[in-house]
């Protein structure tokens, strides 16, 4: 199938500092964007569009994008997708108590089927909101990968280890690697320096070396973590992971709320991507990460939602708005983290973190056809003085009308194609009833 979006307001996200949308027709063949026919470049015959239509006449689907923005799919660079089963389960609790007394005991009851079900619910939520790629960190990641392939979303699965679960970690890595395809890749995930022994942390580095895998971890999230790590190792969490050798591999580090100037220099020099999770950090009272300072110092900063148990949703539009506003209030400077920078965090900067710069997170000829169509004809989106500001400060998941991943239409009319919503909700309710009995 070939797709032709006519009369779209295209937001390419290819400029690192600022970018303005343009009116264009956009053509997709197979899994790639092959044509962007900008209005100001067309001659009277619209030759590029006409050639595209003629070439794909037998398989062409045309979409009227008048009044809509065509932009890159969003990249949620840190989540625990199966934790949708714990949405609103344990709220208004400090992080260490939340984990030790509520989340970890609940997770101990989960089966593989539970994880698959929670993952499906989370992926449906993300897709409806325009997320086309997500980086997950959890257990049974091969199962998450299989669900992702079935749902049609791109997934970076990261088998996670903490000390009590170290036994199943390497099995999970092996099984996850068997699921690798054009839409699924694998990282390893040491949960955090406070939840893994030094021996197990060193084993994680060995696995990276043996298999050539990149890293996905939590770092420098709270004051408690800083104290625990300094008491045990005499250094910051970021200094510890650098010393252990994790940063010799491409690393995405979630949170990084409590960072020093030295930490930021390490992150920059080792090209570690920080994943900002503003709403989770707010809810757990972790603090406000110095995102703008890190970005200005040369650190790549992307955006994530964290899990639905600490957020409580997987809405990247909420995260963009929160990220921008938090930096302004914490710095008392309304100019920091402008709307375009926040949008890049959720698109092109996320792609850069995954080594997919130029392929994902942009709308450009030759890029992968991961695009979303956002409806501007809503009361909260009108009037439009600036499209980028309108998207970041006014946009909602419910404004996403269509989602295309790898040239395949996954969401149409705001709903995931072919998904039995009521069956999914009923299955989740039944599982949760069983879990509470267990």
Distance between the termini: 47 Å
Task: Tell me the quaternary state.
Answer: single chain
CATH C-level name of the largest domain: Alpha Beta
Choose one word for the global shape: globular
Class computed from helices, strands and strand pairing: alpha/beta
What is the number of E strands?
Answer: 18
State the low-pLDDT regions, or none.
none
* Helix content percent band: 25-40%
- The helix count comes to 16
CATH superfamily of the largest domain: Metal-dependent hydrolases
The third-level CATH topology of the largest domain is TIM Barrel
Rounded radius of gyration (Å): 21 Å
Strand content: 15-25%
Q: Biggest sheet: strands, sense, closure?
A: 9 strands, mixed
Mean pLDDT: 95
The CATH architecture of the largest domain? Alpha-Beta Barrel
Structure summary:
Helix 3 crosses helix 4 and helix 13 (339-345) crosses helix 15 (387-394). It contains 16 helices and 18 strands. The termini are far apart.
Q: What this model shows, in words?
A:
Strands 1, 2, 3, 4, 5, 15, 16, 17 and 18 form a 9-stranded mixed beta sheet that branches. Strands 6, 7, 8, 9 and 10 form a 5-stranded parallel beta sheet that branches. Strands 11-12-13-14 form a 4-stranded parallel beta sheet. With 438 residues, the chain is α/β, with parallel strands linked by helices. The mean pLDDT is 95. A hairpin with a 2-residue loop joins strand 2 and strand 3 (32-38). The protein has 2 domains: 2-72 and 365-416, Urease, subunit C, domain 1, CATH 2.30.40.10; 74-353, TIM Barrel (Alpha-Beta Barrel). Helices cover 39% and strands 22% of the residues. It starts with a strand and ends with a helix.
């Amino acid at each position: 199938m070939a797709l032709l979006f006519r009369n779209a307001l295209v937001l390419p996200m290819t400029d690192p500092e600022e970018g303005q949308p343009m009116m264009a027709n956009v053509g997709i063949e197979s899994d790639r964007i092959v044509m962007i026919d900008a209005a100001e470049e067309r001659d009277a015959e619209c030759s590029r569009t006409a050639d595209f239509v003629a070439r794909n006449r037998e398989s062409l689907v045309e979409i009227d994008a008048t009044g809509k923005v065509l932009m890159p799919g969003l990249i949620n660079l840190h989540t625990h997708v199966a934790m949708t089963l714990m949405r609103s389960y344990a709220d208004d609790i400090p992080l260490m108590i939340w984990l030790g007394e509520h989340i970890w005991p609940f997770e101990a009851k989960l089966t593989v089927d539970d994880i698959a079900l929670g993952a499906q619910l989370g992926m449906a939520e993300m897709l409806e909101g325009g997320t086309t790629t997500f980086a997950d960190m959890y257990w049974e990641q091969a199962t998450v990968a299989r669900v992702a392939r079935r749902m049609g979303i791109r997934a970076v699965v990261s088998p996670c280890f903490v000390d009590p679960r170290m036994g199943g970690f390497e099995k999970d890595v092996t099984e996850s690697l068997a699921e690798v395809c054009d839409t699924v890749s694998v990282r390893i995930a040491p949960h955090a320096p406070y939840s893994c022994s030094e021996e197990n942390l060193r084993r994680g580095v060995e696995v990276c070396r043996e298999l050539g895998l990149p890293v996905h971890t939590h770092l420098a999230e709270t004051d408690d973590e800083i104290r625990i790590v300094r008491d045990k190792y005499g250094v910051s969490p970021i200094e510890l992971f650098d010393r252990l050798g994790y940063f010799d591999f491409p690393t995405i580090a979630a949170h990084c709320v409590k960072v020093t100037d030295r930490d930021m220099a390490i992150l920059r020099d080792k090209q570690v991507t920080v994943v900002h999770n503003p709403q989770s950090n707010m809810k757990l009272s972790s603090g406000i990460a110095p995102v703008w300072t890190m970005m200005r110092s040369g650190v790549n900063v992307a955006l994530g939602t964290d899990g639905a148990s600490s957020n409580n949703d997987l809405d990247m539009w909420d995260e963009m708005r929160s990220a921008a506003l938090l930096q302004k209030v914490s710095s008392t400077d309304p100019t920091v983290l402008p709307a375009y920078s926040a949008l890049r965090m959720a698109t092109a900067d996320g792609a850069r973190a995954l080594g997919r710069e130029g392929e994902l997170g942009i709308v450009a000829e030759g890029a992968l056809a991961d695009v979303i169509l956002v409806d501007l004809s809503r009361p909260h989106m009108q009037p439009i003085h600036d499209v980028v500001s309108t998207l970041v400060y006014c946009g909602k998941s419910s404004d996403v009308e269509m989602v295309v991943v790898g040239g395949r239409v996954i969401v149409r009319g705001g709903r995931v194609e072919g998904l039995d919503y009521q069956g999914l909700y009923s299955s989740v309710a039944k599982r949760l009833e069983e879990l509470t009995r267990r």
